[in-house]
């Protein structure tokens, strides 16, 4: 279940008093623990209500009021969004949180509505379908795409050329013989062990991925589009859609660089690499 964990405002937070460095570090450690446990989806602190605005709705009227607002106990100073198995689990996590204020303070836990809660009033499923479409659209708006170049044994040479003539900057590079997982037998031709398995480099404000690939068919064999999607469900949906009428070159599966990664060529001949972001806590 998804819950919002609400840090209630206090006199000090409404006065704009900044936390101590000790509290900032303690909160950072708590957030790191939440992230490593797979609980935290997002979270932020909010500025005092003196910098906020309220819009009151009354029929067709809209009344705008600038802060500050007097009801301190009704104001929010910060929040998290957590994915937990139950409210009891959320309570246990909150108990581990450092006191966010210098005085006594409250943290409130509220579960999110889910579409199942509206099943009775959404009898024909139209609202659920609309919600699903919106979630897919949001997931794809947040997806990252990169052009992935394959140089068939000439990647080092290409990188040096781009560095010299285009001012390229290599951000990261590792070779097949540096892979934490053994390369399958027969995958590489002789002499390819020291070739580039994966690298990332920039040209201007563009980030490109590159590799020597797994063969030496020629100086340049083409490119794929690498698509990184935060949602596993959306990654699987996109992969299946691209595979419809196309061909799967590598089924979606866990790799050492991604919790879920696969390769597919769509029905138009375009190659895709679909993946979830890597888990930094396992790196």
Automatic annotation (TrEMBL):
Pfam families: 3-dmu-9_3-mt (PF06983), YCII (PF03795). Residues 148-274 form the PhnB-like domain. Residues 1-112 form the YCII-related domain. Gene3D superfamilies: 2,3-Dihydroxybiphenyl 1,2-Dioxygenase, domain 1 (3.10.180.10), Dimeric alpha+beta barrel (3.30.70.1060). Belongs to the YciI family. This is VOC family protein. It comes from Photobacterium arenosum.
């Amino acid at each position: 279940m998804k819950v919002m964990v609400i840090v209630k405002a206090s006199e000090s937070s409404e006065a704009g008093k900044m936390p101590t460095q000790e509290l900032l570090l303690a909160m950072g450690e708590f957030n790191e623990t939440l992230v490593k446990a797979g609980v935290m989806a997002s979270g932020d602190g909010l500025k005092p209500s003196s910098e906020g605005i309220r819009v009151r709705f009354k029929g067709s009227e809209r009344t705008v009021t600038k802060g500050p607002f007097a009801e301190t106990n009704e104001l929010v100073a910060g929040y998290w969004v957590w994915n937990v198995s139950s409210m009891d689990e959320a309570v246990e996590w909150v108990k581990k949180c450092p006191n966010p204020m210098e005085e006594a303070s409250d943290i409130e836990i509220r579960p999110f509505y889910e579409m199942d809660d509206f099943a009775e009033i959404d009898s024909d499923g139209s609202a659920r379908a609309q919600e699903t479409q919106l979630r897919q659209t949001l997931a794809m708006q947040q997806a990252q795409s990169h052009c992935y170049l394959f140089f068939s044994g000439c990647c080092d040479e290409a990188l040096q050329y781009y560095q010299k003539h285009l001012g390229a900057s290599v951000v990261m590079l590792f070779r097949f013989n540096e892979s934490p997982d053994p390369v399958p037998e027969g995958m590489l031709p002789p002499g390819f062990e020291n070739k580039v398995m994966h690298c990332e480099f920039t040209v201007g404000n563009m980030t490109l991925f590159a590799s020597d690939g797994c063969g030496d068919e020629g100086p340049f064999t083409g490119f794929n589009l690498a698509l990184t999607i935060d949602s596993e469900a959306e990654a699987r949906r996109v992969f299946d859609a691209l595979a419809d009428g196309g061909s799967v070159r590598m089924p979606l599966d866990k790799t050492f660089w991604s919790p879920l990664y696969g390769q597919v060529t769509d029905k138009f001949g375009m190659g895709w690499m679909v993946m979830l972001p890597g888990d930094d806590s396992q790196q």
